[in-house]
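Consider the following input, taken from an annotated entry for histidine kinase (Hymenobacter algoricola).
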Amino acid sequence: MKLLTATTRYYLRLTVGLFALASGLLYLGFDWALRNEVEELLYNRQLHIQKQVARGLPLPAAPFADNLERSRQPRPLGFSDTLLLDPVEDEMVPFRRLTFRLPHSGVASAPEWVTLRKSLVETEDVLVVVLGVLLVVLVLLLGGVVALNRWLARHLWAPFQHTLATLRTYDLQRHQPLTLPTPAIDEFGELNQALNTLSERLVSDYESLREFTENAAHETQTPLAIIQAQLEQLLQAPALQADEQLTTLLGAALGGTRRLSRLHQALTLLTRLENHQFAPAQAVPVLLEQLLHDRVALLEPLLTARQVQLTLHAEPPLPARPMHPGLADSLLQNLLHNAIKHNYPGGRIDVRLSAQVLEISNTGPAPLGDPTRFFERFRKHNAASDSPGLGLSIAQHICAYYGFGIEYSFAAAGSRHILRVQFA
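Applying the prediction step yields:
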């Protein structure tokens, strides 16, 4: 829910509540005032009648007599309400009445009770008009509140909306801090200034981290290559052939160095992908079908050693895709290596390539972890594996770099792992 919508709801609730309370009090006030006016009128007529009777004059004649009733029977004194039938409208009409006792007009005369009545129809009409006016004012007030908040959303909150739109499209990897303007509203100006300062610090820290990563990758590459080459030379030295224990130790050290070298290369590639260091000008039309055949041919010895059968299905026409050749090769290599590594001896790999999708499915044991986390860094299906666990993460970054979609699924029927790359 938007902030203005929430505040508008509170304003409307408060306005309706206060207006309802004020309308009720105003209604009661008007009703009391009008009834008091009617009672005062009836009381004045009572005084008038009593004076006439005291002077020996007869009671008033029509039309006043229509609202006057005389009775020899005792009746409750004072004011009261009643309903009488209106012969013209043929409906019950509310009246306010005043009953009082006339004194004896003579020695032999009996007391008499007089009832004066006054219609309250005019009073109710006034109250209906008042309530109607209040209702119209309430509707106009609520409409004005809603219109005012919409105007505020379009004008006063425009700098805030601009800031949100800028933040949604901001990319730290462009290495540019935010340049938000300073609006006339102080609060929005302070917010933009704080965001500008924060983005400058983020860009500075990001640049420092990127430079450190590049320098560390560059400085460690050469020593690793030297260590690996020297270990290979030591293993081939004739003097070490007779010492089996030392040969085993050097072999383990060489294996660890190779794993460290692969980890170094994978992390370097991920860093370059995240920093967008592959220029668009380096992209060339790549035929993925030909690249797949070349990669499968290189993996043939590994497939034979693992006793895995690979089948490639290509569905023409297959357009060339503008990609960096190294990234295209790395994408296919990581996906195929993943299918071989997580397979049974004697298993199968099916590769299907079309203009819209690249799908690699392989047999293998059911996944043990959460499939939604397989694309995270250093995520391994088998903790004892010598793989650094970066293959699928690299594949995902390459797909994201070119706007491709990649997803993993497992089909229990046939126990098949499926990796699908959806081309944009």
